Amino acid sequence: MFFKRNSIIFSWLISYMTILLVPILTGVFIYVKSNQTIVDEINRSNNLILLKMQKDMDTLLEDANHLSVEIALNPQVQELLTIREPLKSEQYFTLYKAFESLKVFKSSNRWNDYFVYIKATDTIITPDLSNSSESVFHSLYGAGGEEYGAWIRYMNGYFQGNFVKLGNDLVFIRSIPIGKYGTSQGNIVIFLDQAKFWVDNAEDYLHNGAAVIIDSNNQVLASTRSMASPLPVSYSDLGSKSGVLKVQDGDQELVISYISSGATDWKYMIMMPEHIYWDKLEWIKKVTMVSLLICLFVGGGLTYAFVRRNYSPVRGMLDMFKERKNGDRTGSKNFNEYYYMQHAIHSTLLENKEMGSRLWRQKSVMRSHFIEKLLKGRDNAIPLQQLMDLHEIAFISDEFAVMIINVEDYNVISPSLVRFAVMNVTEELARQTHQGFVMEMDDFIVCLVNFQDRQELAWKQELFEVAGRMLTFMERNYRVPVTIALSHLHTSIAGISKAYYEALEVLEYQSIYGVSGVMDYSDMVMPRAKGEYYYPLEKEQALMNCIKVGDYVTAEAIIDEIFKDNLEQRQLPLKLAKCLFVDLIGTMMKTINGLSGMYDNAFLEELNPLDRLLGSQTVSEMKNQLKLILRSICDSVGQKQVGKRANDVMQSIKDIVAAQYNNVNLSIASIAEQIGLHPAYVSKLYKDVTGASLLDDIGKYRIEQAKQIMKEQDMNMEAVALRVGYANVRTFRRIFTKYEGVTPGKYSEMIE
């Protein structure tokens, strides 16, 4: 195996490793989900314990509150509040009755004990005894006087139903009588049983954690085990009603789940070391790691083995292609093996395709050459049957006809595309019911049709049908004009050349006489003229007269009459028709030469009439060219005559102005009348030629003459004005000032 950067080995390795990642990622996912599941289960267990604790504790606290109210409202307890020392005999009886009445409330097992403290007599009454406060304290705690002092201060305090920590006991205290706020004659003290706080076997559920109850003063009221002070979390950290948070307690992380009491401001908490969670996951973690290692080692080994085994046939094929490519290793260096083999196979297929295409073209050319020789009647040195077998040609009958298709105008479509379409469609149509061979010959598309055995006249109808469908297809899909020439039916291979030349004659006839569409050899009308055309002298003279005056309309009518006499009635052959057209061109050139130097050789060279005429292929084209030449000549003659007439008119105008400027009646109308033209035409012609108004130029001419008179003769202004054609001296003065910028008088002073 060769390990190159672009080798497919790396692609395979990446693919296999990607597949190998699936179980690995699955194991990691299972481990993460298991971790989350165990954490959720522990938290759910803690929440259940907290909910049970909350429910039981809130019920216990409410019961303690109800008990304190019942004791406070007891008549015997109310009577005790009226006793004062020293006690009388009947007051001892009151103490006895109160002692007996307290026994009624001892039926519940939710608290350890309770008593009533009477401040006036410093007496404590329990369901079991009645004695002084100090004696009861010593019986309960056995402590000294200092602790008793703190304890008795609690007993003398005022409480509205508060839970207080007395030593290790959690008690509920309510001052009596109820309703006297701020004053206390005694207190009812109920000792809560802390063993009732917790769920049975809570240690098993707490996973070595601890359940704790704290109040708003951060005082631990109860816990499942002794707690160090202060706690790692304060009351203010437990802001919401319930939740879970993590805190640092020394060198370990604690997870604390908590819930708020519904009866007091207490918080019930379960504190659990975080490693408890991970201890639960340790086994899953080990199993996951072992599974991942197995996947990596076993999967990696199998990946290597499979890659090596799968690469062996690829390497063998690669070596084979390299041998065929003469040791070219470009593909293995620059591309991977698959690309190299794909490139090698593609190149081989292209070579085979190109070779097959060359053979097909060579065979097609040879076959077309053979059919061309049949069409043109050329002899072959090799027997005909051998040549037909060589080119895989087998005629189905001895009946043949030739169809020649001429595309007259390709418009904007590629000629090669049109010819390709014509050849394919023609061959397909011919082979639907017959046998057809299509090729290009002499700028035409020739189809040799070999008919099935048909009735005598059926071949013509079917051949016309093929040609008509071909014509319709080209007009509909390509919009190009097509001319189709058909031959007679010939009944031997030797008649193929006759059929071809017949079709050529039909095509030539269509070209000469401008016949479009489909035409058969039998439809031709042979020309009746044998060697002459009709162009009499009077027609020629009439045509020359029209050209001399530039009358194209009349000249065109004479040409059309000559065409009708010779091309429609006499049906001249193409060569004789060209002679007629050359004769007509000669008439035009003689007329131009006789127009007294109006035209030179440059005009005839630019017009180029003979080359344009002789370059036409059909009578229709020659007629169009002849008329275009005639129009050019008539337009040129007309323009020159118009220009000469304009020059004559301008000269006449100048002569009249120079001779009659002193005539006060000189005007555009008088000038036009003398020339014999309309005044408007004279004015417009003068404006077009000079760019100035005729009246302005008359005025300027008169002023120039006036200036000359003032220089040469001593005359007054009235005489000068009348001398140059102004009857009114004021008009003369205004015109003079307009053109000279000064009055005539000033001008006269200036020249003196």
Give the helix/strand layout.
Layout: H1 8-72, H2 75-80, H3 89-102, E1 111-118, E2 123-125, E3 130-132, H4 133-141, H5 145-156, E4 160-166, E5 169-176, E6 186-192, H6 202-206, E7 210-214, E8 220-223, E9 242-249, E10 252-260, E11 267-273, H7 275-324, H8 330-334, H9 337-376, H10 384-390, E12 400-407, H11 415-430, E13 435-441, E14 444-450, H12 458-477, E15 482-486, H13 495-513, E16 517-520, H14 537-548, H15 552-569, H16 574-593, H17 601-607, H18 609-614, H19 619-660, H20 668-675, H21 679-690, H22 694-712, H23 717-723, H24 729-740, H25 744-751
Parallel strand pairs: 15-16
Antiparallel strand pairs: 1-2, 1-6, 2-3, 4-5, 5-6, 7-8, 7-11, 9-10, 10-11, 12-14, 12-15, 13-14
Helix pairs in contact: 1-7, 7-9, 11-12, 14-15, 14-16, 15-19, 16-19, 20-21
GO molecular function, one term: sequence-specific DNA binding
Pfam families: GGDEF_2, HTH_18
Transmembrane segments: 12-32, 287-307
Biggest sheet: strands side by side, in what order?
3-2-1-6-5-4
Number of helices: 25
> What spatial form do the alpha-carbon principal axes imply?
elongated
Low-confidence segments, given as residue ranges, are none
- What would the average pLDDT be, to the nearest integer? 79
Describe the structure.
A six-stranded antiparallel β-sheet has the order 3-2-1-6-5-4, with helices on both faces. A five-stranded antiparallel β-sheet has the order 8-7-11-10-9. A five-stranded mixed β-sheet has the order 13-14-12-15-16, sandwiched between helices. Helix content is 58%, strand content 13%. The chain has 752 residues and is an alpha+beta fold.
